[in-house]
Design a protein that fits this description.
By secondary structure, this protein is of the alpha/beta class. The chain folds into two domains: 8-65 and 345-452, Aspartate Aminotransferase, domain 1 (Alpha-Beta Complex); 72-343, 3-Layer(aba) Sandwich (Aspartate Aminotransferase, domain 2), CATH 3.40.640. The protein is built from 15 helices and 16 strands. A seven-stranded mixed sheet has the order 4-10-9-8-7-5-6, with helices on both faces. Strands 11, 12, 13, 15 and 16 form a five-stranded antiparallel sheet that branches. Helix 5 packs across helix 12 and helix 8 runs parallel beside helix 9. Bound molecules: pyridoxal-5'-phosphate. Pyridoxal-5'-phosphate binds at residues 61, 120-122, 125, 154-157, 226, 230-231, 259, 261-262, 288.
Length: 453
């Protein structure tokens, strides 16, 4: 192992100036329990002391092709030497932005043929909403502005994206509440006791229809949904839910936005999950993370020909754009990343190893505090409960997710604590043996956390 290049004390001193994302900033002031990651290779990351960890969270649901891919680094460096930066404003373009837009359009389902590049998942979602607002204005339907979202959803941290995110994520923070209505979370594990999963699905669809009737379809622009709710607890909706919700949207002329920021580019075994896994043809797909595997910050909002036709009609002006939309270095990273996914058949690998990973993870349900293991392929979560019979939840003070994550880290695995859950979204290149190792470490960590009480 290489000697660490960094003094941990120095990094932590400097880090006192850094405003961490989604952190208890006060707790960070008090203690130095921060992990300094200095290096990464393949499915592993290393801390400043040289300790190796399986990267169980793929950075942040994003390092799909694994760390340390020199092909991507080389493609970025080459592009920066050829053309460091130019914008895609007005009539300007550059070869890689053009090539990437065509490539993404060729992979997206159906008539999703136009691509707007941004620099984060939040921006992808905000851009989708802005485009739809303009679309309906141009159609002479300026009242069609409200968005249907779901309790448990996570759509990002910009102003509109956070308004569509589950209210629990913005306690004490403001948001554009007047634009969003929330439907129930499609959360089978915590469905009402007296309902079968099928009845629960009926309930969710009826609730959606009733909400639309109450608000009026003439006031609703879109329904936004992650195929599997990620940060809201890796919630896999009941079978058929997405198709039925999409049919409701079709019936009421409500646009369907699929937030595939996590699921696109291989995590569920396909480039896009909407059509291939959930049998829906959204009007817009939002993607980010896996687009570059996190090597560069980039997102793609992919819109239908129908939407594009309206917003590009004579007299229309596209009044939306960011300095870094279609940045050359991001395009280079995305093109090389997609080439790797295709060349190495990473989607095929996920379809082969993913179900074995799921099966291994499911064995953890034997443990006393594991209420449910759920998810699909390389997107998994464990919900811990105090009592398996009653499903009594742990309290935030119990910090059960944090305890399990701490024990896992001591054993060489980084997982994401999420309330009373531990969440996994590892790199998609993990071997079957490595997924089995994750399960072993989790078993030991959950047992250790249970003993700790
Ligand atoms: C489903 C989903 N949508 C949107 C976002 C926001 O993406 P970003 O953090 O790149 O803004 C995330 C981030 O985790 C996400 O999981």
């Amino acid at each position: 192992m290489n000697k660490p290049h960094y003094s941990v004390e120095k990094v932590l001193r400097q880090d006192d100036h850094l405003v961490h994302s989604f952190a208890n900033l006060d707790a960070l002031k008090q203690d130095n329990a921060r992990t300094v990651i200095t290096r990464a290779q393949g499915a592993y990351v290393y801390d400043a002391e040289g300790n190796q960890f399986i990267d169980g969270i793929g950075g942040l649901w994003c390092v799909n092709v694994g760390h340390g891919r020199h092909e991507i680094a080389d493609a970025i460096a080459k592009q920066l030497k050829d053309l460091d930066y130019y914008s895609t404003f007005y009539n300007l373009t550059h070869p890689l932005a053009a090539e990437l837009s065509q490539k993404v359009a060729s992979m997206a389902p159906g008539n999703l043929n136009k691509v707007y590049f941004g620099n984060s998942g939040s921006v992808a979602n905000d851009s989708a909403i802005r485009m739809l607002q303009h679309y309906f204005n141009r159609l002479g339907k300026p009242k069609k502005k409200r968005i249907l979202s779901r309790v448990g959803a996570y759509h990002g941290s910009t102003y509109m994206a956070v308004a569509m995110t589950t209210p629990a994520y913005r306690d004490g923070w403001d948001s554009a509440d007047h634009l969003v209505d929330f439907l129930s979370s499609p959360y089978p594990y915590r469905r009402p006791d007296n309902m079968s999963v099928e009845e629960f699905c009926d309930f969710l669809i009826e609730e959606m229809e009733q909400t639309i009737e109450k608000i009026g379809a003439e006031n609703i622009a879109a329904f936004i949904a992650e195929p599997i709710l990620g940060a809201g607890g890796v919630i896999v909706p009941p079978e058929g839910y997405h198709r039925r919700a999409w049919e409701v949207c079709q019936r009421y002329e409500i646009m369907s936005i699929s937030d595939e920021v996590v699921t696109a580019f291989g995590r569920l075994g396909h480039m896009f999950a909407s059509k291939e896994v959930f049998d829906i043809q959204p009007d817009i797909i939002c993607s980010a993370k896996g687009l570059t595997s996190g090597y560069q910050p980039m997102s793609a909002t992919i819109i239908s020909d129908d939407i594009f036709e309206v917003i590009s009609a004579p007299g229309a002006m596209f009044m939306h754009g960011m300095t870094y939309s279609g940045h050359p270095a991001c395009c280079a990273a995305a093109l090389e990343n997609i080439a790797i996914i295709e060349r190495e058949d990473i989607c095929g690998h996920v379809r082969k190893v993913g179900p074995k990973f799921e099966a291994g993870m499911k064995t953890l349900e034997q443990l006393d505090i594991v209420g449910e293991v759920r998810g699909s392929k390389f997107m998994m979560g464990i919900e811990f409960v105090k009592n398996k019979e009653t499903k009594e939840a742990f309290t935030p003070e119990d910090n059960i997710g944090g305890k399990v994550a701490k024990h896992a880290q001591q054993r060489g695995l980084i997982v994401r604590p999420l309330g009373s859950m531990a969440v996994l979204s590892p790199c998609l290149i993990l071997t079957e043996d490595e997924t089995a190792r994750i399960v072993d470490i989790l078993r030991e960590s959950i047992e250790a956390a249970t003993k700790e009480g």
